[in-house]
Design a protein that fits this description.
Elements (H helix, E strand, L loop, with lengths): L8 H13 L2 H8 L3 H15 L4 E4 L2 E4 L1 H26 L4 E6 L1 H6 L5 H7 L4 E6 L13 E6 L6 E14 L2 H4 L24 H4 L18 H9 L5 E4 H10 L10 E12 L6 H17 L1 H7 L4 E4 L2
Parallel strand pairs: 3-4, 3-5
Antiparallel strand pairs: 1-2, 5-8, 6-7, 6-8, 6-9
Helix pairs in contact: 1-2, 1-3, 1-4, 2-3, 11-12
Length: 311
C-alpha cells in the first residue's frame, strides 16, 4: 500500500463523492465543503495520479474510461472504510441511528419519539432525515424506515403497514364537497413527484384525474400538507401524514373511502447482522405506533409484519 502515500486521502474522497453523485455541488454538500474546494481536490488528485478522471460537461462530470475503473474501486474501498468506522457505534447498545424520509420524520415520527425515549431511557436515538436509500450494511445507520414496494437488494426488509390514501382539506373547504365529483370544482394541491397518482383514489369512484381542478403545486409533500391545512386546496394524503391533523381538527377527510397505493412502510436492517437490543426495541415500538396511526394499513398487510431478505 505504499503507493497511497503519493495521493491525498481527501482528494480520493472528493473524487469518489463526485463520481457517485454526478456533480460538484452534490459532492460538496455531502462532504460539507465548498464546490471550489471539491474541484481543487479533484484537480490535485488527477495531478497526483497523472491521469484525467473526469471530463467536464455542461450537465456535470463524466468519468473517463480510467475514471470509471478508479471509481469502481474507490466506491468499494470507501464503503469498507465506512463500515469499519460504523463499528464504533454498533458496539454500543445504547445508541441507535435511524434513517427516515424527512416528511415522515417531521410530520409523524418526531411527535411520537418521546414515547420511545420514556419507555427506553437507556437508548439514545439519532434521526437521519434523508431521501437517499441508505445501506445499513456499510453505513453508520442501524436501521431505516423506508416507504416503497420492497425488493431492495442486500438488506432485510420487514413490511410494517400498507399505505392508504384519501383526500384531506381544511374544514371550511370540505363544506363544498358533497361527493367525489365535486373535486372538479375546488383547488387541488399537487406534489408532482409523488409515488402515486390521484387515480389510485379516483378510479374506484368511477373518476379519473382529468376532472381535477387546478391548484398550487409544491415539490415537497410536507409543503403540500401544510398548504391543505392553510385552506389552499385538497391534498391526497396518507394515514401517517394526516393522522395528527385529523385528530386535532386542522384537517378533515371529506370522504370515507381509503385505498391502497401498493406502497408500504418497511423496517430495513442489515442482511447478515443480528439485530441489537436497541434495534429490536425500536422495531417493536414503531410497529405498534404505525398500527395505531394506520389501522387500515395494518389490516391491509395482514397478521404481523412480512419479512423479505434480498440476496
Amino acid at each position: 500500500m505504499r503507493n497511497l502515500a503519493r495521493v491525498h486521502l481527501g482528494g480520493l474522497r472528493a473524487v469518489e463523492a463526485a463520481g457517485r453523485l454526478g456533480t460538484l455541488r452534490a459532492a460538496a454538500e455531502e462532504l460539507g465543503v465548498t464546490v471550489g474546494a471539491v474541484s481543487q481536490q479533484i484537480l490535485k488528485c488527477e495531478a497526483e495520479l497523472g491521469r484525467t478522471l473526469f471530463e467536464r460537461r455542461p450537465r456535470g462530470l463524466e468519468p473517463t474510461d480510467f475514471g470509471v475503473a478508479v471509481l469502481e474501486r474507490l466506491s468499494a474501498g470507501f464503503a469498507e472504510l465506512s463500515a469499519a468506522v460504523a463499528l464504533a457505534d454498533r458496539r454500543r447498545e445504547d445508541v441507535l441511528t435511524v434513517s427516515v424520509a424527512p416528511v415522515l420524520a417531521s410530520k409523524w415520527l418526531v411527535w411520537r419519539l418521546d414515547r420511545f425515549t420514556r419507555a427506553h431511557p437507556g437508548i439514545r436515538v439519532r434521526i437521519d432525515a434523508a431521501l437517499d436509500l441508505v445501506d445499513p450494511n456499510v453505513s453508520d445507520v442501524d436501521l431505516c424506515i423506508r416507504v416503497g414496494r420492497g425488493g431492495w437488494p442486500g438488506v432485510r426488509a420487514e413490511r410494517l403497514v400498507a399505505q392508504l390514501v384519501f383526500p384531506v382539506c381544511a374544514p371550511a373547504l370540505a363544506q363544498r364537497l358533497a361527493g367525489p365529483a365535486d373535486l372538479a370544482r375546488v383547488p387541488i394541491v399537487t406534489e408532482p413527484h409523488a409515488m402515486f397518482s390521484w387515480d389510485v383514489w379516483l378510479a374506484p369512484n368511477g373518476l379519473d384525474a382529468g376532472i381535477l381542478g387546478e391548484g398550487p403545486v409544491y415539490s415537497d409533500a410536507a409543503l403540500c400538507f401544510d398548504a391543505a391545512i392553510a385552506g389552499q386546496g385538497v391534498f391526497l394524503a396518507w394515514e401517517t401524514l394526516a393522522a395528527d391533523a385529523l385528530a386535532m381538527g386542522r384537517l378533515v377527510a371529506p370522504f370515507p373511502d381509503r385505498y391502497p397505493t401498493g406502497i408500504s412502510y418497511w423496517f430495513v436492517t442489515a442482511r447478515d447482522r443480528a439485530p441489537t437490543r436497541a434495534i429490536t426495541a425500536f422495531r417493536e415500538w414503531i410497529a405498534g405506533e404505525l398500527r395505531e396511526s394506520c389501522p387500515g394499513g395494518a389490516a391491509a398487510v395482514g397478521e404481523g409484519p412480512q419479512a423479505e431478505t434480498a440476496r
